[in-house]
Amino acid sequence: MNYGLSKKGVRELAYKFAVANGKEYPPKWNEEKIAGKEWMRWFMRRHASDLSIRKPEATSLSRSTSFNKANVDAFFKNLESVHSRYGPIPAQRVWNVDETGLSTVQTPAKIVAPKGVKQIGSCTSGERGNLITMIAAVNAIGNHIPPTLIFPRVFFKERMLFGAPPGTIGAAVSSGWSNDEMFLKFMEHLIKFVKCSKDERVLLILDNHETRLSVEAVERASAAGVVMVTFPPHTSNKLQPLLTVYGPLKGYYNQGVDAWMINNPGRTFDLYCVAEVLGTAFPRAFSTTNIVSGFRKSGLFPLDRGVFCEDDFLGAYVTDREIDLQAATPSSSGLNLQPQNSGTSISETPEASQNSKRL
Fold first, then answer.
1. pLDDT surpassing 90 at residue 352
2. Looking at the predicted structure, is the pLDDT value of residue 5 above 80?
3. Would you give the end-to-end CA distance of the chain in angstroms?
4. In the predicted model, what is the mean pLDDT of residues 338-344?
5. Which residue in 78, 153, 316, 348 has a CA-CA distance of 20 to 30 Å to 44?
6. Inter-CA distances, 249 with 6, 187, 233, 287, Å
7. Mean pLDDT of the chain
8. Cα–Cα distance for residue pair 295/334, rounded to 1 Å
């Protein structure tokens, strides 16, 4: 449920349990009102097959509570309605798009070092680097299109793409982040490769960030035969197929930057070198196996409502509360009992385009 106990928390709970149930325990526990460290070590040994000390992944409250059964069911209902209206849409025309960041300062890999040395260094190009945004798209049979790279510069220069995957397009934004204009450019790039039309529609699944839902992008997608379906807010960590690709990509990219630093001692790895390293990491990460695995794991293709079990929704149960229907009135509490933003299907009607801007 994303509220696990630390070792100290387990020791405090053990002490309270022992006191409440009249169990025998060392008198020393009473001094600090906590079980001893020796007890903790033996406890972990006794349950070594079931328990281990893990470093948790930081999970925001929004992600923890938004990934619930109601939101996921509404999202899959949207997908089913699109397949029913236009399809079923085959795997080669089911696409997913997402973006990720590539830094000029890599996370160094573990190295072999002598025992007893307290601090070991590994060279990076700087303390804080530049972040280059990459937008990529994959389909359910394991294919992909060349990525789009957005550099944190005012003006784009072609040499920024030296060594990039064939077909990669580039652009420059002072912040380095994607915006309405950049996503519209990527949409044109996508349409050129997927060969969609009103008769051969493409299903594009993406998050509902405001840059994806500009009027221009929605209208261009509609005119080309692209049906856009968005994830519910804060659920892409479970529903996004590209996660099974971007995870390996970061690992291969870091390895590439490490190798570059070793082969170019004394030189700074800057944004003009990113495309070259990406050129070697991209084909390794964007393999058919990784891509197809992402669609299957998220239940997007083959379409599977039951891909997530009750355990996957445990994080949302922590905030579940019984609602007092008498108190839950607009005049008193302002509570809205209707589900909000549970994913959106964007059709080709002007009304739908306006609705998408209100998400």
1. no
2. yes
3. 28
4. 45
5. 316
6. 32, 22, 24, 10
7. 87
8. 39
Pairwise pLDDT comparison (311 vs 165), residue with the higher score:
165
Residue with tokens 């509490």: 333
C-alpha count within 13 angstroms, C-beta hemisphere, residue 16: 6
Global pTM value: 0.80
Task: Tokens for 77, please give them.
Answer: 């209902």
Q: What angle is formed at CA 62 by the lines to CA 61 and CA 64, rounded to 5 degrees?
A: 60
Contacts 24+ apart (CB under 8 A), 40-48: 40/7, 40/10, 40/11, 40/14, 43/10, 43/14
Measured CA to CA, the distance from residue 263 to residue 270 in angstroms comes to: 15
Spatial neighbors of 271 by CB under 8 A, at least 6 apart, are 104, 130, 132, 151, 152, 153, 160
The number of angstroms, rounded, from the C-alpha of 284 to the middle of its chain's C-alpha atoms is 19
Q: Give ∠ CA 254-256-261 in degrees, rounded to 5.
A: 95
* Nearest partner of 177 among 269, 100, 281, judged by Cα: 100
Q: Hey, what's the torsion of the CAs at 85, 87, 92, 97, to 10 degrees?
A: 10
Q: How confident is the model at residue 58 (pLDDT cuts 50, 70, 90)?
A: confident
Q: Residue 184 half-sphere exposure, CB side, CA atoms within 13 Å?
A: 11
Kindly report, residue by residue over 77-113, the tens digit of the pLDDT: 999 999 999 989 999 999 999 999 999 998 887 888 8
Instruction: Report whether 171 contacts 135 (CB < 8 A).
Output: no
**Residue among 18, 50, 49 nearest 35 (CA):** 18
Q: What are the structure tokens assigned to 192, written together? A: 């050129």
The secondary element (H helix, E strand) that includes residue 66 is helix 61-66
CA dist., res. 1 & res. 312, Å (int) = 9
Residue 348 has pLDDT above 70, yes or no: no
Q: How far is CA 348 from the centre of its chain?
A: 27
CA distance 358 to 181: 19
